[in-house]
Amino acid sequence: MELDNRKIQILKAIIETYLETGEPVGSRTISKINGLNVSSATIRNEMVDLEEMGLIVQPHTSAGRVPTDKGYRLYVDRLMEERTRDISKLTRFFSRRMDRVENVLKSMANMLSADTNYTAMVTGPRYMRNELKLIQLAYLDASHLIAVIVVEGNVARNKIIPVKERLTNEDLLKLNILLNSALQGKSLDDLTLKHIARLKEEAGPYRDVVGEVLNAISEVVYKEQNEPPEVYTSGKMNIFRYPELAEGTMAERILTVLEDKGRITDLFERDSGSGGIRVYIGGETPMPAMQNCAVVTTEYDFGKGLRGRIGIIGPKRMDYEHVVSTLKTLMEEMDRIYHADNREEM
Amino acid sequence: MELDNRKIQILKAIIETYLETGEPVGSRTISKINGLNVSSATIRNEMVDLEEMGLIVQPHTSAGRVPTDKGYRLYVDRLMEERTRDISKLTRFFSRRMDRVENVLKSMANMLSADTNYTAMVTGPRYMRNELKLIQLAYLDASHLIAVIVVEGNVARNKIIPVKERLTNEDLLKLNILLNSALQGKSLDDLTLKHIARLKEEAGPYRDVVGEVLNAISEVVYKEQNEPPEVYTSGKMNIFRYPELAEGTMAERILTVLEDKGRITDLFERDSGSGGIRVYIGGETPMPAMQNCAVVTTEYDFGKGLRGRIGIIGPKRMDYEHVVSTLKTLMEEMDRIYHADNREEM
DNA sequence: GGTTAGCAATCAACAGACACGAGTGCTAAC
DNA sequence: GTTAGCACTCGTGTCTGTTGATTGCTAACC
What we know:
The structure is a homodimer. The first copy, chain A, contains 13 helices and ten strands. Chain A is α+β, with helices and mostly antiparallel strands. A five-stranded antiparallel beta sheet of chain A has the order 7-3-10-9-8, with helices on both faces. In chain A, strands 4-5-6 form a three-stranded antiparallel beta sheet, covered by helices on one side. In chain A, helix 5 (88-95) runs antiparallel to helix 6. Chain A is elongated.
C-alpha cells in the first residue's frame, strides 16, 4: 500500500498528539487539527490503512490508536524535524574551570535529566590503551609506601603498600627512576614475564617492593579495563512522571535494570560501531523490562581515548526531537571545546 | 491502666504476627497461639485495653489490629529479645586483604541489604581533623605537575597543576621537602595567612607553584570536610518487597529521599550524640515520605577519625531483632579488628 | 470477678448489572 | 473520493448484593 502524503500527515499528527497526552488518539481529535480539512470518517478510513501497515494499533476495539514501535521508528527516521537548541545551558559546565572527568560527567547527567525530564545516564570512560604515564613512590609513614599510578588521560590511582625494611630517600629515588624508565609508555599488554623478571632483578634488595608495585599496577589498571565502567545517573525518579512506566511492577523492573551498571553498559554499547546518535524503541532494546521504554544514546569523546556513552531513557512516547537535538548540540559543543585546541587539564 | 503480663504477651504476639504477615491480626489468630490458653473473646477484651493505651489500632471496624508507632516503640525498647548472629558472613569482607575504605563500605552495604532484605545505606567517613600527612609533587608531562595529597586516615587525593616554567628534578625535590616540612601534621585550621606568606617566600621562584598546591589542598580537603559525605547504597529495590511501601506513590517518594545524599545524611545523623544503635519508627523520622518506614542506624568507626553511619531502611514491620543484632554484631567485629591491634593498611 | 460462648453488627472485598461515553466500522448518499 | 449517520464494541464508573472476617456486647458460667 502506498504511504501517501496525507497518510504521513495523519500518522505524524497521531504520534505527536500521543507524545503529548499518552492517551490513545481518536479520529475526531485528528480531524480537528487545522491544515487537514477532512472529516473524522475520512481519518478513520486512513487509520485502517495505517493499521494494516503496522504503524498504529488499537489497544482494544472502540479505543483510539496508539503508535507501534514500527510507527515510532518511521517517525524518528523520517518524520521528525530537527530543532535547534539553545546551547547556553548546555555549555555552562564546560566553561567552568576544568574539573576532573567524573565531575563533568556528573553535571552532564544532571543537566540532561533536568532539561529533558527523562533519566540520563553517562558511563565513565573506558581506557582503550592504558599506557602508564607515571609511577611515583613515597613514604607515608614508617611502614607504608604510597604508590601513585597515572595512566594516559591523566587518571591517577593510588595504592598503599606495606613495607618491612626501611628504604632511604636515595633508594626510593632510585626505585622511582627505575620503575618509570622501565614502565613509562607501556600498557598492561606490553608487560611480559620477561620484563617483570628483569625489573625485579635490577631492583636488587627491593625486589619485593617492585613486586608489590607491579601487583598494584595490574590491580588498578586491569580493574579499570575490565570491570564495567562507572555509571553516573540523574533523574531516575523521572520515570514516575509517565504512568505507562510507573504502573504495576514496571517501575520496579526498570529501576532494577538502571541500578545494574553492567546491564546499562550493555544497553548503551550495543552495536556501537559507528558514531552518531542511536535510538532504540521498545522491543529494540535487549531488556524485557524496557519494552515500554525508548533509549537514545551517543558516544562522547574528551580526546586522548577518554570515550564513553551518554544515554537518555524515557517512555516510548518520548520527545525524540528534543532529546536528539539536545544530544547533538551537546556533542557539537564538546567537540568544539575539546578537539579544537588542547584542553588545559583534566 | 496496668500493662500486666498477659497484655504484654498479647501485644508481643500481635506485633510478631504482624511482622510476618503484614496483615491486621485478629483475636482468633492470637488465641490459637499456644502458651496463651484463653479464648478469642478474652483476647478481644484485652485488645480493647491495648487500643485504649494507644499501642494498637484497627484500620477499620471489623478488621484485625495493627501496632501503632507507640506499640513498635514499646516492642523495640522492652519486648524484643536479642538474637545472636552467625558472624561468618559478616566478617568475610573484613578478613580479605584490606582494601580502600570505600570498597569496605560498599561491601558492607551489599552484605547488609542481602542479609536483611531491606535497604542498606552507609555514609562515607567524615574527617573531623584533617591533618595533612603527605604532599608529593611529580612531573606528569612537560606542562603539568601532579600533586598527591594524603590526609590522616590515608585518604589520598590528587590534583593536576599546570606549570609554565620547567622545574629541574632537584628543584622539585626541594619543593617537596619544603612543602612537607611546612605542612605535615597541619590541618586546614592551622594554616594561617602568615604561614602561607612565609611558605611562598621560601619557595622563591616557585611561589606560584606553591600557591597552586595550597589551592589544591584547600579545595580537596575543604570539600571533603564540608560537603555531605558520599553515600553507598544497596538494595534500594527491596522496598518493592513490602506492599505498604510500594503502593501508590509511596515508592516514588521514598526512593526520591534515598537518592538525596544530603537528606540521608540528615536522617542518619539526627541527635547522633551518643553511640549505640538508634531506631526511628514512622513519624519519628523527620521525613514525611517515610511515615511508613523504620530506620535503624548506628555509627561505625575505623579508627583514626574515620567515622560514619550505617543505616537500614525498611517497613515499620521490620524484623527489628534481626536488624539490631546484625548491626550490633557487625560493630563488635569491627571493633575487634580495627581497635585491638593496628590495621595493616587502608 | 474473671472467663467464655454466642450472636448481631460492621465493613472490606468481590462480583454482577447497568448506564455512559468514546470511538470505531460500515453503508448509503453526495 | 468524501461524508453523514447509525449500530456496535468496549472501558469506566456506579450501584447493589453477597461473602467472610472480625469485632463488641451480653448473658451465662466457674
